Amino acid sequence: MKIAIWNVNSIKTRLEHVKRFLGDSGADILMIQELKGLEFPEDAFKEVGYQSQAVTQKAYNGVAILSKKPVKVIHDKLPGDKKDEQARYLEVEQDGMRFINIYLPNGNPVDTEKFDYKLAWMDRLIVRLTDLTKDNIPFAIGGDFNVIPENKDCHDPKRWKDDALFRIESRKRFRAMLNLGLTDAFRVFDTRAENYTFWDYQAGAWQKNHGIRIDHFLLSPTIADRLQSCTIDAKPRDWDKPSDHTPVILELAA
DNA sequence: ATGGTCGTGTGACGA
């Protein structure tokens, strides 16, 4: 089966892009982030053969899971803080597996409460993934992690040195997730630098390949055993009016 | 060093 992730930077603006990607990729499941609005075009996806589950809020954030087959929603927010209203987490079940879609907080500027929120959100996520691991529940978590794991995951480490996406506090927590026994699916197949999933709209970043790798798939051990491929599909970044992110596609043995 | 770009929703803020 094929599962993809994509930060679309507004579903209203990128509806045709997403439909085109579904057609091109034939993905069984597509997890999208940054919907950026209350409305979700459920009917438009139904017309092309995908049911959807969406968690939305006004203007910001928002995540959805599109699927050819039905899914059961397990959590529509990250457990651990009843006061957290931001639409950033969706966990569903299909065929005994959990698929978790996240839009992890950006965290900039680092000298504000936004960075504290990011780190606290990551701590809650580690608790959730620890629980799933203890219960031996097979899962794939994917989405916009807003973390640059290593130097080679950005074009210019000096430029990112003090950024919330690259600060040691963020990378340490990402590492803690890997240390649960999870696999960074993309890195199984390609360990080279200059593989990116995001390029800023400004300063010709895309044309110069000045990007960062911040959209990830992490797999629990039994799912990792079925891993066949994980690739970055850079083509949609070159379409008209693109998102600033591009999809990552995961293939698992049936 | 500065300004450079998008999106929401029509301001300023977020990325």
CATH topology: Deoxyribonuclease I, Chain A
What's the count of strands? 14
Question: Which stretches of 5+ consecutive residues score pLDDT under 50?
Answer: none
**Backbone CA Rg:** 17 Å
Q: How many domain regions?
A: 1
What's the quick description here?
This protein is α+β, with helices and mostly antiparallel strands and about 250 residues long. It contains seven helices and 14 strands.
Structure write-up:
- The protein has seven helices and 14 strands.
- The chain is an alpha+beta fold and 254 residues long.
- Strand 1, helix 1 and strand 2 form a beta-alpha-beta unit.
- Helix 3 runs parallel beside helix 5.
- The radius of gyration is 17 Å and the shape is globular.
- The mean pLDDT is 98.
- It binds one DNA strand of 15 nucleotides through loops.
Labels describing this entry:
six-stranded mixed β-sheet, alpha+beta, 14 strands, Deoxyribonuclease I, Chain A, 7 helices, DNA-binding, 254 residues
Task: Chart the SSEs and their pairings.
Elements: E1 2-7, H1 11-25, E2 29-33, H2 42-46, E3 51-55, E4 63-67, E5 72-75, E6 89-94, E7 97-103, H3 113-134, E8 139-144, H4 157-160, H5 168-178, E9 183-184, H6 185-189, E10 198-199, E11 211-212, E12 215-219, H7 221-224, E13 227-232, E14 248-252
Parallel strand pairs: 1-2, 7-8
Antiparallel strand pairs: 1-14, 2-4, 3-4, 5-6, 6-7, 8-12, 9-12, 10-11, 13-14
This protein binds one DNA strand of 15 nucleotides through loops.
